[in-house]
Amino acid sequence: AGGVATALGALAPDGGTLTQMLAALGSGAALGAAYASRVGPTELPQTVALAHSLVGAAAAVTSIASFGGMGAAEAEAASHAVHSAAAWAGTALGAVTMTGSLVAFGKLQGMLKSTPLNLPGKDVINAGAALASAGALYGVMTGNKALGMAGLLATAGLWGGLGLHMTASIGGADMPVVVTLLNSYSGWALCAEGFMLDNDLLTIVGSLVGSSGAILSYIMCKAMNRSLPNVILGGWGNGAKGKAMEVTGTHTEATHESVVDQITAAKDVIIVPGYGLAVAKAQYAVADMAQTLSDQGIRVRFAIHPVAGRMPGQLNVLLAEAGVPYDIVHELDEINDDFSQADLVLVIGANDTVNSAALEDPNSPIAGMPVLRVWDAKSVVVMKRTMGTGYAAVDNPVFFKTNTDMLLGDAKSTCDALSGDVKKYFSR
């Protein structure tokens, strides 16, 4: 809405142009509303990524068109140096946002593999593209319109390629950070457009979006023990690691009845929800069971990993929607030391965020990532559909530990049945 108001105010279009703009606006709004109406809570991350790609495309096209609309004399004028530099920045940031967002959408939607792309000499590829784009910037700043347009088109291609390569080189565990980074990129692209179009509102709004996205990305990287520059550059400098630890052993499969017995016998229960809970829409059954236990004097808490789900805060929103009191929902730093005192931990649809390989295996793709230490509890019950790996495609040793029981099946059906039987037990 702010962008529409800005465009109308800046252009002051005549009646015919305004009609065309409103027709385009109406078509876009109708298409967006139709698509958004079909999107569920679990599909929001990829929807956000797709929207970012459109912002990036608009920024790149607007920047190139604005530069192309200058006369030859204008392009040579020293006063248009800022305009030319802003056009280059808008093109570069728009292109990297567009292609990076499309790759992120593909990964989150399951259309592309979540594992990182590791091309030979990938750091050299990134550095070469960056140097070439610096040469393109020189062409844009020469004052020669033809050379400048060629430089902008080259910049769009180079930064579009960088967006594809760098995002593809980022592993699935870091995708929530990528979504916030792309949000930041889209903001800075708007800011560059504001300079180019001499529009203060675009500059201010873009700065707010860009800086807030950058701050959130930094906070998330800090929570995950990741380097922000490393994530931005698609794992810059990451050499080949040794072979990851092989996970061996036999898992223990629990029955529905045995899990009910464990739940009703516990005095301190911690519930760890993950993306699987969101997909199954099991939050209401879990919230109902938590309330039943609390009514019986059993201490119940929820542990949320900073990157649980595919988007920052996704699990917090789902639990709040189900009526879970905010004061029993805790972040990783607040509750990680309490697992050793818990009688029972219920892991529902979480995998990578409770993977002990992050701490036990220095060669693991998620090595060093802070995880919820659920295995410290007296007993752990993991509810998931199958014994398969999580989004990061890393085997989880927790599933094979002696204090862990696996309850396989659909999370919603399982949680509905558990909630009902726990109620029956306490109503006897």
Write up what this structure looks like.
This protein is α/β, with parallel strands linked by helices and 428 residues long. It folds into two domains: 39-232, no CATH class; 256-426, Rossmann fold (3-Layer(aba) Sandwich). It has helices at 2-11, 15-36, 44-68, 72-76, 81-109, 122-141, 145-168, 175-197, 200-223, 228-232, 256-265, 275-280, 283-295, 314-321, 332-335, 357-360, 411-426, and strands spanning 268-273, 299-304, 329-331, 344-348, 379-384, 404-408. Strand 2, helix 14 and strand 3 form a beta-alpha-beta unit. It starts with a helix and ends with a helix. The model has no long low-confidence stretch (mean pLDDT 86).
What labels would you give this structure?
6-stranded parallel sheet, 428 residues, 2 domains, Rossmann fold
Cα-based radius of gyration, to the nearest Å: 25 Å
Class based on secondary structure composition and strand pairing? alpha/beta
Into which percentage range does the β-strand content fall?
Answer: 5-15%
Overall geometry comes to elongated
Strand order of the largest sheet: 3-2-1-4-5-6
Output the helix-strand order: HHHHHHHHHHHEHHEHEHEHEEH
Q: Could you say how many structural domains there are in total?
A: 2
Low-confidence stretches: none
Mean pLDDT over the full residue set: 86
**Could you tell me the number of beta strands?**
6
Please report the distance between the alpha carbons of the first and last residues.
57 Å
Task: Give a summary of the structure in a few sentences.
Helix content is 58%, strand content 7%. It has 17 helices and six strands.
